[in-house]
Amino acid sequence: MDAHLSAVAPTAALDHLDWLEAEAIHILREVAGQCANPVLLFSGGKDSICLLRLAEKAFRPGRFPFPLLHVDTGHNYPEVTAFRDKRAAELGERLIVRSVEDSMRRGTVVLKSPGESRNKHQTVTLLEAIAEFGFDACIGGARRDEEKARAKERVFSFRDDFGQWDPKNQRPELWSLYNARIHPGENIRAFPISNWTELDVWQYIAREGLDLPSIYFAHTRPVVRRNGALVPVTPLTPPRSGERIEEVSVRFRTVGDITCTAPVDSVAATVEQIIFETAETTITERGATRLDDQTSEASMEQRKKEGYF
């Protein structure tokens, strides 16, 4: 058995990653113990990769007590979706993929224009997947340090039978006691790494030797500079009139839909170099890279109220 998968000796001094890991494993086991039909949201991004490692430690050598689910916009980076499929296959776990394009064909998602970002429409597809499979809990990799709305969220976040979140009506979690009781049609969103930071995630990746999609590391990519962000030049995000295309060494701090995920200037080609950069930065992860969150401070909170994870 992998040394990191074995239990920490009782006399060993625990560092902060050990404490965070133990809390996350406890939360995963609480979801499995309290919920009848949970699912783990797995996109192939770094946070959900950590969740898979934590699930291994929580439940191996048995199978996970839940499948994996990805809500694909159809505009995700191919490096990430390829990694998603490879990692699920390596683990031998069931991966369910539901696409915003499926919702568009059903008419439940209607774009305002062909070029509109599909990212916010993931909510509809997620709620449809929850209804299709009868999931009563969705395990996600959201962290409280990402942005203001997520900082308001409980570890076990209740959603009503419309999939909606009410930030003013949340359950207490004193002494790490979690309440997953729900009525039919309701569900819980569980966030095992709520108390982790971006730096914690990278330190955990380093400690566990986790593989990642290549776009998390420095590489040269054509970009344009727009409103303080580096926008990658792709068929979905072409340059605008007057913009100059530059070849820049960049990496992605977070990954998502191509139309709303921007890289950052970087020459960090190893996890250790990324840890150094992350420790030095004063700009939040989503503030630097998520183009859809910069239009309004309330945008994420509104999306979460509508059912977003």
Give a topology summary.
Blueprint: H1 16-34, E1 38-41, H2 46-59, E2 68-72, H3 78-91, E3 95-99, H4 100-106, H5 122-133, E4 137-139, H6 148-151, E5 156-159, E6 187-190, H7 198-208, E7 219-226, E8 229-232, E9 246-251, E10 264-265, H8 271-280, H9 285-289, H10 299-305
Helix pairs in contact: 1-2, 2-7, 7-8
CATH homologous superfamily classification of the largest domain: HUPs
Report the C-alpha radius of gyration, rounded. Answer: 19 Å
Number of helical regions: 10
Query: What composes the largest sheet?
Result: 6 strands, mixed
Could you say what the CATH topology of the largest domain is called?
Rossmann fold
Helix-strand pattern, N to C?
HEHEHEHHEHEEHEEEEHHH
N→C terminal distance? 34 Å
Explain briefly what this protein structure is.
This protein is of the alpha/beta class and 309 residues long.
Description:
With 309 residues, the chain is α/β, with parallel strands linked by helices. It folds into 2 domains: 3-201 and 298-305, Rossmann fold, CATH 3.40.50.620; 211-293, no CATH class. It is built from 10 helices and 10 strands. The strands form 2 sheets. The chain has a 6-stranded mixed β-sheet, sandwiched between helices. It has a 4-stranded antiparallel β-sheet with strand order 8-7-9-10, with no helix packed on it. The chain is globular and about 55 Å long. The two termini are 34 Å apart. Residues 293-298 have low confidence and may be disordered.
Search tags:
four-stranded antiparallel beta sheet; 309 residues; alpha/beta; 10 helices; 33% helix; globular; Rossmann fold
